[in-house]
Amino acid sequence: MLWVKAFHIVSVICWFAALFYLPRLFVYHASSSDKISIERFKIMERKLYRGISTPSMIATLVLGFWLISYNVEGYLASGWLHAKLFLVALLVAYHFYSGYLLKQFRDDKNTRSHVFYRWFNEFPVLILIAVVILVVVKPF
User: Fold this and answer.
1) What is the 3-state secondary structure (H, E, C) of the chain?
2) Interval 70-125: pLDDT, tens
3) Are 110 and 30 in contact (CB under 8 A)?
4) What's the confidence (pLDDT) of residue 111?
5) Cα 38 from Cα 105, distance rounded (Å)
6) Which of 6, 10, 54, 60, by CA, is between 20 and 30 Å from 124?
7) What is the C-alpha separation between 71 and 111, in angstroms, rounded?
């Protein structure tokens, strides 16, 4: 179980790194006007999303459910886990919405300013704080 937990934590770190960096790339992409920069951001965003973010998300989910499988009844009786799983579901939705935004940039259809993406970038930070508190403190 400890090996599964260790790799779960590693995959969570990788996923969050990507969730923090991809919207930051969107900020710079939305601010760019020259073709070379725009094309460079498209490549960087695609590689980050497909090569790091999505595999890390999948690993996080698989390993997380594997951890739950060690004590299904005990974990499902814990209120903190229900709250955590809800927040993870929000992160998965955020992940796929980021993929949608990536496609908007890829197709040159972005209509949002860099300011939107600066705010959009803060959402995973709030989720991370809440998840860490739930897992460490287990308030309910």
Assistant:
1) CHHHHHHHHHHHHHHHHHHHHHHHHHHHHHHCCCHHHHHHHHHHHHHHHHHHHHHHHHHHHHHHHHHHHCCHHHHHCCHHHHHHHHHHHHHHHHHHHHHHHHHHHHCCCCCCCHHHHHHHCCHHHHHHHHHHHHHHHCCC
2) 999 999 899 999 999 999 999 999 999 999 999 999 999 999 999 999 999 999 99
3) yes
4) 96
5) 9
6) 6
7) 47
What is the C-alpha separation between 80 and 111, in angstroms, rounded?
Answer: 38
- Total count of residues recorded for the chain: 140
Tokens of 56: 């890390």
Question: What is this structure's pTM?
Answer: 0.95
